[in-house]
Amino acid sequence: MSPRRNRPRGGEKPVGRDGADRFGLERTESWQDEEWVVRQISGAAATKHYRCPGCDQEIPPGVPHVVAWQQHSGADDRRHWHKACWNARDRRSAKLQRSRNAPKY
Predict the structure, then answer these.
(1) Which superkingdom, per the lineage (predicted)?
(2) What are the residues facing 67 on neighbouring strands?
(3) pLDDT tens-digit series, residues 16-73
């Protein structure tokens, strides 16, 4: 008898207990008369630094957050938000005060 396989075979996506893939469940929300795709990112999946457009503060690696993009736009238009900033997006405006040459991460 051969040993049990612990890894999924090629082509299969890693799936969590609740049916979500490694990066979380996607849902669609309506905001500013647009349809937005919203994905929850766990702390374990957050491996890079991002800049939140709601508060213009950095999101360090390991912090759970939200990724949102317009439904009909490409992957380059994704924005990483703090969960509280995304929930308060109607009460806040984008506070982008960076210079032209500043990085957009």
Answers:
(1) Bacteria
(2) 39, 80
(3) 444 444 556 788 888 878 888 999 999 899 899 999 988 889 999 999 999 999 888 8
Q: Is 103 inside a domain boundary? A: no
Domain assignment present for 105: no
Residue 69 lies in domain = 26-87
Any idea which residue has 């309506």 for tokens?
Answer: 30
- In single-letter form, the type of residue at position 66 comes to V
**Closest Cα partner for 68 from 32, 96, 15, 95?**
32
pTM over 0.85: no
Q: What are phi and psi of 32, to 5 degrees?
A: 55, 45
> What does the alpha-carbon distance between residue 32 and residue 104 come to, in Å, rounded to a whole number?
23
Distance (Å, whole) CA 105 – CA 87: 21
